[in-house]
């Protein structure tokens, strides 16, 4: 997993292929491929403008406001930012969050995992995977698979809506609720509300199971292709529970290298900076985090569903655990490093979320009124959760007047920064043919990026129709060829 | 008060509204259950007449109803499309002049400015935001002052002076430079004798004066304006 970015003997002679969205919504993605003199892909840079200015924006704000403020950061997973920030504020007010509030937050988080994973899989990935993203792909077999699951789209919409209902009832609002407060929750869940959600949960679990079966079938149909597409080996990082179980809400940090060897384990995340550093590069607004023990070059890693399913020792719900075992055993573990295996891991997590929701809804603690606590105030707070896309770190420092003086956020897409570049590079190595930009290449790069579910509106909000412009420039900057893909999916030059 | 004192009437939108001497149009209207939109007026304090939301047409002339004494036979137009559209424009101006980020504001759902905007069917701020940098003052251990949300209604000024006897707040500057100021050599709230139990700590119609660490404690659904609009709330007898 070595990296030779920016090490060309004559970078001024490198050709550049730039792929960028035609329309910017929020966040802005752009892919640059640098070719060497032999027209081989030397380097891939996935540029993202995201979260700039946020750390400044919260300065001076009172700490209790920040968990609500940060929900505006991301239109895709506001609940994750809300929860991570509140965990940091729990620490600042010295709270031991009461059991009931902890469970209500977990329930909300599971609702978020469910709705986010359902959105990603059914709306974005399933079309890629079912209908093929390359002309050479044997469409018929995959189309036949789609015919075997005629209700896929309907189930996807229903799963997402169910997750949103869980969020609405726990947070008080469909989006940008205020249920989570520093030290706990401002409301519980009534028995009636639990019963209302329980009515559909069996169905939700069954559909989630069906989604796992679907991705398994897709994957197994062409295991070599799915294992090799944009693939490489890397380290993984995620939270795990004290007993090694998958835990998306709380735990210690675990990192394993590309051979599965432990780099660190059960690390107290409130000291994450002893283990992870962030490197700044001139060409990107986004930082490049790396594991200190492995250094700048070797220290990059992947986070998210694939990292979590690989890193945990077991999943504490039955069906998801059975699926984890199947995943791990598949082809002697051949999928565990594959870029497209993110989709499979994601669906196992969705199943886990559905099962966890069922379990939580039966818990009488959800009706408790013991919902908030506080203790001795501290000036620093760190909150970490496993957001749908991966490890999310919120870190704040306040002054004596309780205003934010410093904030540092590391979002999943930032952790995966180098990993996404590497996936794009692998795809380009496989599919770029000389100086010819093909629709296939464009689509394949998109698919590789999308496997990570990066939090870019162009990658996700456009529902699988990422508008892209590809330009091939020679070393002197002269345009050789341009290929545009509009948001309706049509290509033009 | 005997019946004869109330024998005088004005009409508001064609409805007879009795008043007694010394009452303003606003007083008479509220007593009779007629709602006139208002932000800087609070029956517990001397009228101030700054927000102009309460402007009505009296015999064809626009006047602030919170300061205008009622007089026999006044013909008042209040709930008209023209006046309400002016009111909406005023609220929109307040929104762009300050920095009101409702979705993240802890006063959301309890804020009269927001409620007035809903009442007046304001769908967008319409005007260009000023994005003026405004100060925040967190120096007081119990109270957070955020001038981004101050609409200069002077309710806190009046409450501190008239009820608390402290004079903690004042208004300084002119025009767009007008600011709420704190009466301390340092200009900091932490250096005054302001207390969280003061009346002035609880009269702000927006989220400019807040008790620290209480934000978002009231769940959505239980906030002041979650189920009632501003006219219903401001017509309640015990409303502050
Ligand atoms: S701080 Fe509140 S009460 Fe005081 S003048 Fe400003 S808006 Fe009015
Ligand atoms: S309420 Fe009359 S001017 Fe503000």
Report on this model:
The complex is a heterodimer of chains A (about 500) and B (about 240). Chain A has about 500 residues and is an alpha+beta fold. Chain A folds into two domains: about 5-50 and about 420-490, no CATH class; about 55-415, Orthogonal Bundle (Cytochrome-c3 Hydrogenase, chain B), CATH 1.10.645. Helix content of chain A is about 40%, strand content about 20%. Chain A has helices at about 55, 65-70, 80-90, 100-130, 140-150, 150-170, 190-220, 225-230, 295-300, 305-310, 320-330, 340-360, 410-415, 415-430, 440-450, 455-460, and strands spanning about 15-20, 30-35, 40-50, 180, 185, 235-240, 250-255, 260-265, 275-280, 290, 300, 380-385, 390-400, 405-410, 470-475, 480-485, 490. In chain A, the strands form five sheets. Chain A has a six-stranded antiparallel β-sheet with strand order 3-2-1-15-16-17. Chain A has a four-stranded mixed β-sheet with strand order 8-7-6-11. In chain A, helix 14 runs antiparallel to helix 15 (about 440-450). Chain A starts with 14 loop residues before the first strand and ends with a strand. Chain B folds into two domains: about 10-80, Roll (Ubiquitin-like (UB roll)), CATH 3.10.20.740; about 85-215, Alpha-Beta Plaits (2-Layer Sandwich). Chain B has a five-stranded mixed β-sheet with strand order 2-1-5-3-4, with helices on one face. Chain B is globular. Chain B is built from five helices and ten strands, in the order E-E-H-E-E-E-H-H-E-E-H-E-E-E-H. With about 240 residues, chain B is an alpha+beta fold. The chains are: A alpha+beta (about 500), B alpha+beta (about 240). Chains A and B meet through loops of A and loops of B. FE2/S2 (inorganic) cluster binds near residues 38, 39, 41 and 54 of chain B.
């Amino acid at each position: 997993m070595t990296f030779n970015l920016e090490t060309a003997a004559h970078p001024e002679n490198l050709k550049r292929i730039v792929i960028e969205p035609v329309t910017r919504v929020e966040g802005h993605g752009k892919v640059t491929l640098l070719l060497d003199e032999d027209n081989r892909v030397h380097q891939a840079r996935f540029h993202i403008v995201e979260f700039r200015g946020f750390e400044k924006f919260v300065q001076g704000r009172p700490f209790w406001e920040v968990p609500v403020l940060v929900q505006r950061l991301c239109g895709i997973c506001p609940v994750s930012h809300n929860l991570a920030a509140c965990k940091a504020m729990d620490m600042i007010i010295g709270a031991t969050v009461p059991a009931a509030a902890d469970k209500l937050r977990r329930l909300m988080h599971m609702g978020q995992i469910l709705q986010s994973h359902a959105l990603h899989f059914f709306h974005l990935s399933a079309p890629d995977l079912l209908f093929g993203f390359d002309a050479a792909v044997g469409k018929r077999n995959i189309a036949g698979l789609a015919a075997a699951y005629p209700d896929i789209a309907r189930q996807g919409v229903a799963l997402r809506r169910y997750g949103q209902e869980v969020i609405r009832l726990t947070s008080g609002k469909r989006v940008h609720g205020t249920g989570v407060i520093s030290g706990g929750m401002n409301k519980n869940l009534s028995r009636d509300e639990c019963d209302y959600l329980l009515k559909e949960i069996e169905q939700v679990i069954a559909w989630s199971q069906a989604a796992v079966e679907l991705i398994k079938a897709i994957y197994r149909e062409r295991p070599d292709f799915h294992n090799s597409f944009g693939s490489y080996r890397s380290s993984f990082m995620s939270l795990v529970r004290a007993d090694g179980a998958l835990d998306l809400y709380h735990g210690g940090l675990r990192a394993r290298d590309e051979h599965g060897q432990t780099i660190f384990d059960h690390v107290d995340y409130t000291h994450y900076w002893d283990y992870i550093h962030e490197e700044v590069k001139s060409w990107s607004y986004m930082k490049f985090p790396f594991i200190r023990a492995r250094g700048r070059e070797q220290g990059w890693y992947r986070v998210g569903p694939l990292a979590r399913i690989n890193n945990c020792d077991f999943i504490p719900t039955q069906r998801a655990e059975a699926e984890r075992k199947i995943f791990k055993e598949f082809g002697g573990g051949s999928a565990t490093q594959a870029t497209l295996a993110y989709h499979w891991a994601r669906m196992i997590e969705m199943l886990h979320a559905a099962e966890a929701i069922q379990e939580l809804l039966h818990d009488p603690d959800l009706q408790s009124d013991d919902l908030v606590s506080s203790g001795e105030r501290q000036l620093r707070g760190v909150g970490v959760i496993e957001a749908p896309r991966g490890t999310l770190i919120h870190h704040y420092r306040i002054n004596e007047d309780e205003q934010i003086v410093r904030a540092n956020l590391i979002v999943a897409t930032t952790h995966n920064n180098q990993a996404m570049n590497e996936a794009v590079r692998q795809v380009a190595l496989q599919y770029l043919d000389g100086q010819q930009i093909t629709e296939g290449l464009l689509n394949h790069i998109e698919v590789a990026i999308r496997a990570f579910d990066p939090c870019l509106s162009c990658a996700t909000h456009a529902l699988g129709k990422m508008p892209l412009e590809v330009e091939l420039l020679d070393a002197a900057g002269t345009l050789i060829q341009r290929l545009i893909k509009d948001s309706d999916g049509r290509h033009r030059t | 008060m005997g019946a004869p004192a109330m024998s005088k009437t004005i009409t508001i939108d064609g409805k007879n509204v009795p008043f007694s001497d010394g009452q303003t149009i606003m007083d008479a209207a509220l007593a009779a259950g007629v709602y006139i939109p208002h932000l800087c007026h609070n029956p517990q304090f001397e009228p101030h007449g700054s927000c102009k939301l309460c402007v009505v047409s009296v015999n064809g002339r626009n006047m602030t109803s919170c300061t205008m004494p009622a007089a026999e036979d006044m013909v008042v137009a209040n709930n008209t499309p023209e006046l309400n559209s002016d009111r909406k424009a005023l609220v929109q101006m307040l929104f762009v002049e300050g920095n009101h980020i409702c979705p993240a504001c802890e006063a959301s759902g309890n804020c009269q400015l927001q409620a007035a905007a809903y009442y007046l069917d304001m769908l967008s701020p319409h005007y260009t935001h000023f994005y003026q940098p405004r100060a925040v003052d967190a120096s007081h251990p119990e109270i957070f002052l955020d001038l981004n949300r101050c609409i200069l209604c002077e309710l806190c000024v009046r409450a501190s002076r008239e009820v608390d006897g402290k004079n903690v707040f004042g208004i300084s500057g002119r025009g767009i430079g007008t600011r709420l100021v704190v009466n301390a050599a340092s200009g900091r709230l932490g250096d005054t004798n302001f207390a969280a139990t003061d009346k002035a700590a609880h009269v702000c119609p927006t989220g400019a004066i807040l008790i620290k660490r209480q934000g978002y404690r009231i769940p959505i659904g239980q906030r002041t304006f979650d189920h009632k609009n501003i006219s219903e709330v401001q017509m309640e007898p015990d409303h502050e």
